[in-house]
Sequence to fold (426 residues):
Amino acid sequence: MSLLKEKLAQIFPPLRQEIQAFVKQYGDKVVSQVTLAQAYGGMRGVKCLVCDTSEVPPDKGLIIRGIELKYLFEKWPEEILWLLLTGELPTPEELKDLQSELRAHEEVPDYVWNVLDTMPADSHPMTMFNTAILVMQRESVFAKRYAQGMKKEEYWEATYDDLISIIAKLPAIGAYVYRKRFNKGPRIESDKNADWAKNFVHMIGLPDPNEELTKLMRLYFTLHCDHEGGNVSAFSAATINSALSDLYYALSGGLNGLAGPLHGLANQECLAWIIGVVEKFGGVPTHEELEKYAWETLNSGRVIPGYGHAVLRITDPRFDAFLAFGNKYFPEDPIFKTVARVYEVVPNVLKQVQKIKDPWPNVDAASGATLYHYGMTEFSYYTVLFSISRALGICSQAVVARAMGYPITRPKSLTTASYRKIVESD
Fold:
């Protein structure tokens, strides 16, 4: 048994008993009220989910297992996966053991490559990526063991096995989707001595002479790993998995939600806007030019992409991380320099618009510019990178949920006529 699985076997039983006792004692306590506007507004702000892997307070941003993201910028994705599952960062020995476990499961079945090779050449990268995950469902340990009569107490173990198998293979799948979809050449075999993110960079085949791209991808995969349980991809995956559909079904379903324009495509829109600004002004605009252009954009009824967030009321710490990375490695890049200048100008403009609650940038305002600098200029692929990272959180949430014995998700819905009776009777 791996060190991580052994540690989880020690952590989960007492934690499950603690949660059961907690719910038994306080189960009747009201923790949220729902307004009619919230019922019709996508349940925004309704406290009705449990997610112990991360939270996003409006005044702090992403917190993973009690640790603010700003203290995790230098950590590798494998360390974050350990943290998501256990609540602790791994020791060097534990990290090495987890990396060895992932390497042992990284080989992708040949039939997956065959399916990708037969897909239309112009398939969307997300369609290719999610199809590959779903096709691998026949490998599910959970599905096999459930069919054999697995005990409920063992659900998390089989889900963990699926997590390891999936996470181990995603870099190779994601890299091949990039190379095939954008005619970059044949598939590149894995580097058995590389860490998870470095191996992805190796297999994607872009130049990385100083390992700056490797450092960026370690950061990128860390920053996008998790974001509470209520975002579309995490919530969809958790709902699917709550029916005891295995992780292959659940993850592919959740990532189909991530492909939506309102969820995972924002970084593409932000980068396109920045490139448009550079083209409009023939280079990096001045502060005065940017301020005038920002007002023109707002007065025309458009928004400034990358600014504002559904939850946050501060600059997204993930934006801070990308900004610091760019300032360190390529401060004079005109695209990145424009991103930084927009940050100096736009918040002050947005503060003057009364209806705007959050004038600060989110992660999407900067992430695309960093990828673009290193030659990853294919916008439609960016969501695949997001997906590789977000799989860490989605799969971790599933292991925890099965270990805690959470039931199937089944909220109650009402017709508009029923809601009318409720509100008009008061």
User: Anything to note?
Assistant: Residues 155-181 form the longest helix (27 residues).
